[in-house]
Every structure is written in C-alpha cells, then in structure tokens.
Give the backbone structure.
Amino acid sequence: MNIVVLGPPGVGKGTYAKRLSEILKIPHISTGDMLREEIKKGSELGRKVKGYVERGELVPDEIMIEVIKERISQRDCEKGFILDGFPRTLKQAQALDSITKIDIALNFLAPKEVIIERLSGRRICKRCGAIYHIKNMPPKRPGVCDICGGPLYQREDDKPEVIERRLEVYKNTMKPVEDYYRDKGILITIDASAGVEEVVKSCLKVLKEKGLLSD
C-alpha cells in the first residue's frame, strides 16, 4: 500500500504518519527529516538544501525527485510506504507516478490558528531530538530535555514569521497537487483538529472503505 500524506506544516501529518506506519508495518518516509539529517551531517545534499530549508522555501524538484526515487527503491518499501512531505509540486506528483503507483492521498486539514500555535510552541532537544511543546507537552524543567538533559531549541522555521511564509508557500504550491489527486479519485480529506488517535482511526476507516485494508 503506497500512501501520500498531504497537509500544511504543523497540521500533525508526521505524527499521524508514524502511527499509521506502526499499525500498517510499512515505512514512514519524512522528506523533512531526511533533509535535516543530511544538513546535520554536512553532506553534499545537505549543503545544497540548507538555505532552502532554513528560509522555509521548497527544495528544487529535481533534487527531491532523485532523493525519493532512491529511497523508495530500498527493500523496506517492497510492501509499501507512507510519503510525508513529498510531493510538494505538481511536477513532483507527476514524477512520482512515473516511478510507482500511489493508492491513496490523505489530506490533513486544520485551522490556521491551530497550526501556528502548534508550530511556534514546538521545542526540540539538540542532543537526542526529543520533541516538546511549551503548552501541550512541556518539559519538566523549562528549556531542558526530560530524557537526556540536553538543551531545547526552537527551529528557525518554527518561528511565527517563518511559519506564515511556509503556510503561504504551501497554499500556493499545493492546490495543483490536491487537484491532481482529486482528479485521480484518490484524495481524501481528514479533519486533523481532533486528537491523534481519533485522526488515525479516521484514516484506518478510510483505508478499509477503499478496500486497501482488510478487517
């Protein structure tokens, strides 16, 4: 089962994709995580994309298409995958169809105010990568990771002014992608303003209704 998850930054699609990955036993492929890891390693790819990521801009199609093509060719994707963060443009969606067949596109939506609050309050441990939220899931000690004691920081692209730009970029670029999957009859809108488990249940219900998942 090959799944694409869509939705604006901060809507929670990564969280939902991870839960679905655990349940369906297929890999969750987050392009954002992949790119940040390459930046951290200082690889050739990391150096190419660093500026785009920090400015909240899209990485060029040609780079992303090659990254995804290589990733989904690996053995752990033989039974399917969940793509998170790709495609982000119509060209990417069309290129993906030339590489493999996508069974369903889950489009997660939530109010803009909810998204900004979720992202601007996020804090990440510099040492182990654990994620917190200053309101919804705060650490026991402000600015300190509960797990390893490392310092917490706010990603540059989680600052309010960058979030606004990211949401605008997303809105402008993703409509053609949504229309593309809608025309193919595989775009399903999911209300992402509910709790995580409720959202995941909605996704599983849709997969069963579409005949992609047996009881």
User: Anything to note?
Assistant: The chain has one domain: 2-111+161-209.
